[in-house]
Design brief:
Elements lengths: L1 H7 L4 E8 L11 E7 L9 H12 L26 E7 L2 H16 L4 E7 L3 E9 L1 H6 L4 H12 L2 E7 L4 E6 L3 H4 L9 E4 L2 E4 L4 E9 L3 E3 L2 E10 L5 H15 L5 E6 L1 H31 L4 H6 L2 H14 L6 H32 L3 H32 L5 H71 L1
Antiparallel strand pairs: 1-2, 3-12, 3-13, 4-12, 5-10, 6-7, 8-9, 11-12
Helix pairs in contact: 3-7, 8-11, 10-11, 10-13, 11-12, 11-13, 12-13
């Protein structure tokens, strides 16, 4: 209740509700889930992440609790409940070794400035009562292990024994000890187990021993696991966090029996990083093949693709200047630039090749005329795409955080590529064209050399045959 009162006092909070007890989101009984609804975006001046950080600072003053807050995502990738946005899991077949190493990993990650709210699921321990069964005594009294298990399940396992049906409803009858006795270990000594000679007290052949046990035993791929969750510090990127976690693994020298893996958003990010070079390479190869078939050349597609580095550099510079991280949306913007930017070179190269082939112009004159005549349509199409990206880059409102990296990468790439490609494309066109002509001349010379050699050998062979006939 104290936590909810602190949250309600925030001016950007509209309402807050809580759920107690273990359920799909609260993994254990000592965890409570809070659902905080903020005021509409137009009525508050701060973002959801800023409100979250402000609430965390205020809630840190409340003793006796640990609070973790995370923004709700429209597209939910995580399949497991956690206290923070990103999950990192340790799994091992040896639970003792796992409990020994997991706190060390948590302490190491908590010391990194790129990570915040580092916590672990499954490290909390609670009081437990262990039952040591004297199997010889139980066997002598005719008490089986299954009978002991059934008795304990009847008392504490909420066994459903029947269902009562009425005209409008049904009621399930659950067998258990009274609620007050469920939390008292002394109630175990008052249980009776069926033997050969009737009911026998459980304490006759069972010794109770106080101990501790994990509050939660999680599994990952049938192995005991501990899930470590963390948030990113302000200004830190997920890629930096992934590198920090891997560096912590190397410093700690985790045993080979402990397997580590990312889950949820962090896992998708890692997989996307592995696929990014392949996607960009596949896009470039596809564009090159299409252009090669269109122009029937292996040289001129390279001239068109030479415009792409300037677009990529412009997009990265724009993201750096605006302080925007390189996200998946920014990558999509760079992939879109491949199709937008290369049309500038296509307009010039297509016109220059047509002028060379049909009007017999030299490459220098042809590309100069192409630059002059195609400047207006190039500028118009570039401005149309650039102005279309400005609302994405500078827009506000619901969901603008997701669209902004896309717009910034498109606008930055188009600005730099438009300034550079009008000058670099003609130079590269002339250089590659000169290289292509030299290669063709070299091939023609290699094809002519065997012909001259055969012509030079024929008179010698004829002279030899004449001399032989005269002799």
């Amino acid at each position: 209740q104290t936590t909810m009162d602190v949250i309600r006092r925030d001016p950007d909070v509209q309402s807050v509700s809580a759920t107690l007890g273990a359920d799909g989101k609260n993994l254990t009984a000592n965890v409570a889930g809070l659902t905080i609804v903020l005021t509409p975006h137009g009525r508050r001046q701060t973002s959801a992440d800023a409100v979250r950080l402000r609430l965390l600072r205020e809630l840190a003053q409340v003793p006796g609790q640990t609070v973790a807050l995370q923004s709700v995502q429209d597209l939910q990738i995580d399949s497991r409940a956690a206290r923070a946005k990103f999950q990192y899991t340790l799994a091992s077949a040896d639970p003792v070794q796992l409990r020994d190493w997991a706190p060390r990993v948590v302490a190491e990650l908590a010391a990194q400035p790129q990570l915040q709210n580092v916590s672990a699921e499954g490290l909390e321990r609670t009081r437990s009562v262990a039952l040591d069964i004297d199997r010889d005594t139980a066997s002598r009294l005719g008490v089986s292990i299954q009978a002991i298990d059934d008795t304990l399940y009847d008392a504490f396992g909420q066994r459903q024994i029947t269902t009562i049906f009425t005209q409008k409803n049904l009621y399930r009858v659950i067998l258990e000890v009274p609620e007050g006795e469920q939390k008292n270990a002394e109630s175990l000594s008052r249980l009776y187990v069926k033997g050969l000679n009737g009911q026998l007290p459980l304490g006759t052949f069972v010794r109770l021993r106080d101990s501790t046990a994990p509050l939660l035993i999680a599994h990952d791929g049938q192995f005991p696991s501990v899930t470590i969750s963390f948030d990113l510090a302000p200004g830190a990127a997920l890629g930096d966090a992934v590198d920090v976690v891997h560096a912590a693994e190397r410093r700690l020298a985790l045993p080979l029996s402990i397997r580590s893996a990312f889950h949820g958003t962090a896992e998708v990010f890692r997989e996307s990083l592995e696929a990014e070079p392949f996607l960009v390479f596949a896009a470039l190869v596809t564009v090159y093949l299409v252009l090669g078939i269109l122009y029937e050349s292996v040289i001129h597609p390279l001239t068109i693709l030479s415009t792409l580095p300037s677009a990529g550099v412009g997009a990265l510079l724009a993201l750096e200047l605006t302080g925007t991280e390189f996200s998946i949306m920014a990558l999509i913007g760079i992939l879109l630039l491949i199709g937008i930017v290369k049309k500038n070179a296509i307009m010039m190269i297509d016109f220059a090749l047509e002028a060379e082939r049909e009007r017999g112009l030299t490459p220098l004159v042809a590309i100069r005329e192409a630059c002059l005549l195609r400047f207006r349509p190039i500028l118009m199409t570039t401005l149309a795409a650039l102005l279309g990206g400005i609302p994405l880059a500078f827009g506000s409102g619901l969901g603008s955080e997701l669209r902004r990296p896309l717009g910034i990468s498109i606008v930055g790439g188009l600005l730099l590529s438009q300034l550079l490609t009008l000058f670099t494309t003609p130079v590269i066109y002339l250089a590659l064209g000169r290289f292509g002509r030299r290669r063709e001349q070299g091939e023609q010379l290699r094809e002519q050399e065997p012909t001259h050699d055969r012509d030079a050998e024929r008179p010698a062979q004829l002279g030899i045959s004449i001399v032989g006939g005269l002799l």
